[in-house]
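Q: what sequence does this backbone want?
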């Protein structure tokens, strides 16, 4: 049925979503801005710049262009400090077995991530070679909910969008998959209002069962 599976990175393959939270929190504390987990959830899947814009809107404030760049650089510097601590054993136990099972069944595998740090993360986790293609934030002009990153991934895999399934932890990513005409598995998201046909999984073993 499906020939390819496209995985989101932050919040699905690994828990870098927590590092994004910590780095944004540190930036907001420095700038005297309000920031909490509910705002952080709005940043899942969207680009660094759009994330900062969401935070500023939430605080009813703005920054000039130079300070926007400075803030994004600072946040990324702190985020990358957290990434330096990542090691292959940070992967949850059922991740690699599922990926190798899907490959054994002839499925092509890709990453579809808005992150410009995706390759660094895959390298830290030692799983770059597991994927047949990586589409990331350096290759797109529109981040999720725009479908571009998933369409780039499908094109790199030479797969028809209608035969791709996306695994996503973000509402923006689910919308992106739907706009790309792909099936979607919502990962660790509440079972509500995600639209018709969205499947749900809370671990990689469940993803494997859905794809049988
Ligand atoms: P960076 P994903 C996304 O990755 C994150 O979910 C989102 O929180 C982040 O702002 C975005 O990458 C950009 O990340 O600052 O590393 O370029 O979930 O699409 O894998
Ligand atoms: Mg994500």
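A:
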């Amino acid at each position: 049925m499906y020939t390819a599976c496209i995985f989101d990175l932050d919040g699905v393959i690994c828990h870098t979503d927590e590092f994004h939270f910590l780095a944004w929190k540190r930036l907001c504390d420095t700038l005297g801005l309000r920031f909490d987990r509910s705002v952080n959830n709005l940043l899942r899947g969207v680009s660094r710049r759009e994330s900062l814009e969401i935070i500023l809107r939430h605080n009813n404030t703005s920054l000039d262009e130079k300070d926007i760049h400075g803030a994004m650089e600072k946040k990324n510097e702190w985020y990358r400090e957290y990434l330096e601590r990542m090691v292959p054993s940070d992967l949850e136990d059922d991740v690699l077995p599922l990926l190798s099972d899907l490959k054994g069944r002839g499925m092509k595998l890709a990453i579809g991530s808005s992150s410009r740090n995706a390759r660094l993360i895959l390298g830290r986790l030692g799983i770059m070679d597991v994927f047949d293609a990586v589409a990331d934030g350096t290759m797109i002009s529109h981040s999720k909910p725009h479908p571009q990153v998933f369409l780039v991934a499908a094109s790199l895999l030479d797969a028809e969008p209608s035969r791709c399934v996306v695994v996503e932890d973000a509402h923006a990513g689910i919308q992106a998959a739907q706009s790309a005409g792909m099936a979607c598995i919502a990962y660790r998201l509440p079972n509500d209002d995600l639209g018709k046909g969205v499947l749900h999984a809370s671990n990689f073993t469940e993803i494997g069962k859905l794809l049988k």
